[in-house]
Design brief:
The complex is a heterotetramer of chains A (200), B (392), C (404) and D (188). By secondary structure, chain A is of the alpha+beta class. Chain A has helices at residues 4-22, 68-72, 113-117, 144-147, 151-157, 159-189; strands spanning 47-51, 78-82, 87-88, 94-95, 98-104, 123-125, 141-142, 148-150. Chain A is built from 6 helices and 8 strands, in the order αβαββββαββαβαα. Chain A is elongated and about 105 Å long. Chain C has one domain (99-388). A two-stranded antiparallel sheet of chain C has the order 1-2. The chains are: A alpha+beta (200), B alpha+beta (392), C mainly alpha (404), D mainly alpha (188).
Chain lengths: 200, 392, 404, 188
């Protein structure tokens, strides 16, 4: 009968009108800023540099300025300048550190390739999305100091991933420590060579 | 569209098959109207230079390129991995299928094996993207027909649920950057699989409600049946692929033809239309959604365990041996393919994308001639184009 | 409920008390001025409320809350979005009123004014309550359609004065639509006037008084020709006020804002006010002619004052307009005019015949009355199905085959 | 009495303006205004039914016909405006004008006006309806048919008397996009 299609359409809209008051499947609006939707753990937006502890972020950066992420980043939005001197990292080995580490957040597209290619677990994806600023130029270029965040923060935003990373790092450090100890023991057991090798 | 009077199409048109001779007294001047690029219903920055005789279209010249971002030349100066996030921005509605097509092409180029669980996961994600895309199209097409937003909002409500799944898996709703050469970046957790299974089981009910809302609607049938009819031979000669081709009755679905990604293991049917008009194109997509649900459910049932990334796959310093490869998959809009030429260096020598909506768009004038302005909008909507993919 | 309870005659008593301060000759003038201001204030505030209700209903149909943020400024009180029409009004007032250089200045200004003037004129004859008729006219219905007929002139002026391709195309569409739907609108009203025997709106409402067996009100809509007439009136009213399935002139997807493209600021708001006034007037006339005006639906409910019943019926009809707008897609211009000329007009003529049969067979009593109903219904159903089949020839949901 | 003079002034002013203005659309709309003035006359005289019928038919429908006619037709060539500077032509105009005025005044003076205006017979709409549908049904139908024929004739006459100005389809296709079409006559 002419019009039956129209009437069934009207019936569906009526059901939705009534449903939108009580049916959770239809009540999907989250009224942002008052209500905040819970972000899934895998959510990623803009990288940050991981530092071992919060007290001395610049001192305990894991990043060793190897510039792999700078080369691999598709939009080339990372700029690194190596430091002149070296400082001991978590395992005591002397490593370089980045004197300058800038990320231009107006270019970065949060594609997370830098996190994948970084061999030192030094850069991870943050979950910050509301970083509006009034200044169009300098404020969008995040410096080393603004990027560095402690490992504890990493545990809060990506708990499972952070746990795996820490486990892996712990095994590596233990292996490195044993190797160093074995090397030291072997050196001590071996006859005294004429002069101690220069500092490695 | 180059000067159209030399192409065979024009000679068929100027014979006035369905356009009256313009010089008889009852017709005044021709009105030249430019619809777009800033127009509410052209799905992005796309312009139609339309010459009108009264309300009927006498000549239509599509003008696009406003969103050209030099994607292919850029591909030649970035590494293979570096181009992967850019493929998300080609067809920004279906990033998972773009990634898969690119990954497939590179894997054929480098002869890179892919573990079974990764292939199953890719099939599940591709079919979820097809659901997402066809739901979006149904919403947009009916929005162009004039429903003030209601079907579009229902479509977006369901789309958001799928995008939440993608966000929980890949980290971002639309820019997933999830496939790698040799598998997927991360594995799907059991909770994710349970959530996805619950969504697809409930999707059939949504489609039933949607069809009750619209498909039997007399006004929609009047507006779309017989509008923009496409004949099979013209479709084949113009290289049309995807639901637009199947709506004309041509049985060509890459999932059956190529049999990539373990599709032969799943039992699903390919719907075919008879008239190739806007109603058929819409209905074919709705029926394809029902088939996709079946595929996803079968994939969930037989999802094997095992690694999701080939252990020997190299992430950096990836240098495929010199040669060329063309990887293609059945994207929601049609055949999306990547043609790569490698010269042994980490960057591809030639990086070419075969976008389905660009090819399908070439027939816009043939479909619109003789119709009114209101029909041209719906025909454009039913071709389902995304300007990111058309302009690259 | 006797006709003179305090609630019923309330507005009249207020008016007489206010007017009593003036000398005798000015009393009639003051009385009518009061009536005019009352109608305009009532329908202007209804217009403000309607914009909010429309957006809320449309939103709820689409499973979203709708405007609920604008409340009392500088406070956190939200008032369920009741501040929204106020905010829209202020926004419209403060927006710059751009008149294109090549526009025809006089007509460009005159169009919204004329449209609003004709829309308000039509309120003069609608009986809002038992004694609440702004102007008691013997040819009330004819006056209503005379005032309504001039809106085409204003739409044409708007389209022509903007001197822009889109608005000219839209003005032509709007004219074609308004003219082709005026005929079914008038034809659907003719049976009511024929059966009621009078052109005055109050007479028509009085004739619909009374209840059969105390339960079923004798409204015109409960007769076969009344139901068909109301359906045709509803569809034609949708088209006359450019509402959803027929909102061709401002079809966003094709002609941007149609003949309103070159209007901004308060003139744009005037157009919408005129559209809503036109919609309220048509719904008011629909209620008066078919739904028993201010008559109570059930005999024992008659103690509620009559203007409450009119308001309730008016709101239900307006909500039906919004419900249709939220659901149906738009018709193309040729389908729209074909629907008018080849479906609604013939049906309205058939309805005229059925109404004639109904009035001739008025004296059938007892069991025969059922057959009277059946005959009338059959006389209507036949052409409806035949014309419907011809209208949707070749359109049907299709069965699809699958590749092997 | 005041209302009568006011209405007369409005009607005459809009009719005169309609004749004098160059812009056709403006004059068509002013013509409609003068018809509305006529309806006001009927209202002043108390004949509501005729007034509303006048508004419905003239302001509603006939104005649309006039506007459509103005839109559909274009002057074949600009009307030659002859300067009325020669004395002879002005003289002839004066004479004819005076003669016509004399005839009018003669008719008005000679018509027997009753001293006191007889009260207008109050006729209910129902009687009017019965009268119209009864004795004058034939006249009503003929007038309706006449109007339709007049409209169709006007459209056909207007459309055929000018040479085809539209661009031919082939020329349209070959023309590069963006160049303006054949210069269509400017709006009247």
């Amino acid at each position: 009968m002419l019009g039956s299609g129209l009437l069934s359409g009207l019936a569906v809209t009526a059901k939705n009108l009534v449903g939108s008051f009580h049916d959770p499947a239809r009540l999907t609006t989250v009224e942002y800023p008052e209500q905040q939707a819970k972000l899934p753990e895998a959510y990623r937006n803009f990288p940050f540099l991981v530092s071992e502890n919060a007290t001395d972020p610049m001192g305990t950066l894991r990043c060793v300025a190897c510039q792999i992420c700078e080369k691999e980043c598709p939009p080339q939005c990372i700029y690194i300048e190596k430091s002149k001197d070296k400082k001991p990292d978590a395992t005591g080995k002397l490593q370089l550190y980045p004197a300058i580490f800038d990320i231009d957040t107006s270019v970065c597209m949060s594609c997370q390739i830098c996190v994948e290619v970084c061999p030192f677990e030094a850069i991870k994806m943050d979950q910050v999305f509301a970083i509006a600023t009034t200044d169009r130029f300098d404020a969008l270029l995040l410096k080393r100091e603004q990027l560095a965040k402690p490992n504890a923060y990493y545990h809060t935003i990506h708990p499972t991933e952070a746990a795996e990373v820490d486990a892996r790092l712990a095994t590596e450090r233990k292996a490195a420590a044993e190797k160093a100890a074995a090397a030291a023991a072997a050196k001590a057991a071996a006859p005294k060579p004429p002069a101690p090798p220069p500092a490695a | 569209m180059i000067a159209s009077d030399i192409s065979p199409l024009a000679s068929r048109l100027s014979s006035g098959a369905h356009t009256r001779a313009v010089t008889d007294p009852f017709h005044g001047d021709l009105l030249e109207v430019s619809m777009g690029p800033h127009h509410p219903s052209t799905h992005g920055v796309f312009r139609m230079q339309v010459t009108l005789d009264g309300e009927t279209i006498v000549k239509l010249k599509p003008v696009f390129g406003y969103l050209h971002r030099n994607h292919e030349k850029l591909g030649e100066s970035t590494s293979y991995l570096g181009s992967m996030p850019y493929t998300d921005r080609l067809d920004y509605l279906n990033s998972m299928t773009n990634n898969w097509a690119y990954a497939l092409a590179v894997e054929q180029l480098a002869g890179q094996p892919v573990p079974e669980r990764a292939e199953y996961l890719r099939v599940i994600l591709a079919e979820l993207t097809r659901l997402l895309n066809h739901t979006c199209l149904a919403g947009f097409l009916l929005q162009d027909c004039g429903c003030s937003g209601t079907p579009l909002m229902y479509a977006f409500r369901e789309r958001e649920k799928i995008l939440d799944l993608f966000e929980a898996l890949s980290g971002s709703r639309m820019m997933c950057n999830f496939q790698r050469f040799g598998g997927c970046r991360t594995d799907a957790s059991p909770e994710w699989l349970a959530a996805a299974k619950q969504l697809t089981d409930g999707y059939g009910a949504f489609l039933d409600e949607y069809e009750r809302l619209i498909t039997g609607n007399e006004i929609l049938m009047a507006r779309t049946q017989g509008v923009g009819a496409l004949k099979p031979d013209l479709a084949i000669s113009a290289g049309i692929t995807g639901p637009m081709l199947r709506a004309t009755g041509v049985d060509y679905d890459l999932r059956k033809v190529d049999g990539y990604g373990f599709y032969p293991r799943f039992e699903f049917r390919v719907p075919l239309g008879d008239h190739g008009d806007t109603y058929d194109r819409y209905m074919i997509r709705v029926l394809e959604m029902r088939e996709s649900i079946k595929i996803i459910q079968q994939a969930f049932a037989t999802l094997p365990a095992g690694p999701v990334m080939d252990p020997k796959a190299k992430l950096r310093g990836f240098r495929p041996k010199p040669g060329e490869a063309y990887g293609r998959i059945e994207g929601p809009r049609g055949e999306i393919g990547f043609y790569l030429v490698s010269d042994g260096t980490p960057n591809p020598y030639r990086y070419r994308v075969r976008p389905p909506s660009f090819v399908n768009l070439t027939l816009l004038e043939d479909l619109c001639l003789g119709h009114t302005v209101a029909d041209a909008v719906i025909i454009l909507g039913s071709i389902d184009i995304v300007l990111g993919e058309v302009d690259r | 409920m006797n006709a003179d309870s305090i609630l019923e005659r309330g507005p009249l008593l207020v008016r007489d008390w206010l007017v009593s301060f003036l000398p005798e000759p000015a009393r009639w003038l003051a009385g009518s001025l009061l009536a005019i201001t009352a109608v305009i204030v009532a329908f202007a505030s209804l217009f403000a409320l309607l914009t909010l209700i429309e957006r809320k209903v449309l939103a709820r149909v689409q499973n979203r809350p709708g405007p609920n943020r604008v409340g009392i400024p500088l406070t956190k009180i939200r008032l369920f979005g009741l501040g929204q029409p106020l905010a829209d009004g202020i926004k419209m007032l403060t927006k710059e009123d751009i008149v294109p250089r090549s526009a025809d200045r006089v007509l460009h200004f005159l169009a919204p004014v004329a449209l609003l003037a004709f829309a308000i004129l039509t309120f003069a004859v609608i009986p809002f309550g038992r004694h609440l008729v702004p102007v008691e006219l013997e040819a009330g219905v004819l006056y209503f359609f005379a005032a309504g007929a001039a809106t085409e002139l204003a739409v044409f002026m708007a389209g022509w004065a903007s001197r822009n391709k889109y608005s000219l195309l839209a003005a032509m569409r709007a004219l074609a639509q308004l003219i082709s739907y005026e005929l079914p609108l008038l034809l659907s009203v003719v049976p009511v006037v024929m059966l009621a025997g009078t052109l005055s709106t109050t007479g028509i409402v009085e004739r619909q008084g009374g209840w059969t067996f105390g339960l079923l009100p004798q409204w015109h809509v409960f007769t076969p020709w009344g139901a068909a007439g109301f359906a045709i009136f509803f569809v034609a009213a949708l088209a006359e006020s450019n509402r959803s399935p027929f909102d061709l002139p401002e079809a966003e997807s094709e002609l941007i804002a149609g003949h309103l493209t070159e209007y901004s600021g308060f003139k744009y708001a005037l157009f919408f006010m005129a559209e809503y006034f036109g919609m309220c007037a048509l719904c008011g006339m629909g209620v008066t002619l078919f739904l028993g005006g201010w008559q109570a639906p059930l005999s024992f409910l008659a103690f509620i004052p009559s203007y409450i019943w009119f308001g309730a019926k008016l709101m239900t009809l307006l909500l039906a307009f919004m419900w249709v707008r939220a659901t149906l897609p738009r018709l193309r211009i040729d389908q729209l005019t074909r629907l008018a000329w080849k479906f609604l007009v013939p049906l309205a003529l058939v309805n005229l015949g059925v109404a004639a049969f109904w009035s001739l067979s008025a004296d059938w009593t007892g069991a025969v009355r059922l057959t009277r109903w059946l005959i009338a219904a059959m006389l209507l159903a036949g052409p409806f199905v035949l014309l419907g089949r011809k209208l949707t020839a070749g359109l049907a949901p299709r069965i699809y085959r699958y590749a092997t | 009495m005041m209302a009568l003079i006011l209405i007369a002034l409005v009607t005459l002013a809009s009719a005169a303006a309609a004749m004098l203005l160059r812009n056709l659309i403006h004059s068509a709309l002013l013509l409609t205004a003068s018809w509305a003035g006529l309806a006001a006359f009927y209202l002043w005289a108390g004949a509501e039914f005729v007034a509303f019928a006048q508004v419905l038919v003239y302001v509603g429908a006939i104005s649309m016909v006039v506007l459509f006619a103005v839109l559909l037709t274009r002057p074949p060539q600009p009307m030659p405006v002859t300067p009325p500077n020669t004395l002879g032509r002005a003289l002839v105009a004066l004479i004819t004008g005076g003669a016509v005025l004399g005839v009018f005044i003669g008719a008005i003076v000679s018509s027997p006006l009753p001293a006191t205006a007889a009260p207008a017979p109050t006729v209910s709409v129902k009687q009017l309806g019965l009268e119209l549908a009864g004795r004058h049904a034939g006249a009503l139908l003929i007038v309706g048919a006449l109007l339709t024929v007049a409209l169709l004739g006007a459209v056909v006459l207007a459309a055929t008397d000018r040479e085809p100005v539209g661009a031919s389809l082939d020329d349209v296709r070959g023309r590069p996009p963006g160049t303006p079409l054949q210069k269509s006559g400017d709006a009247p």
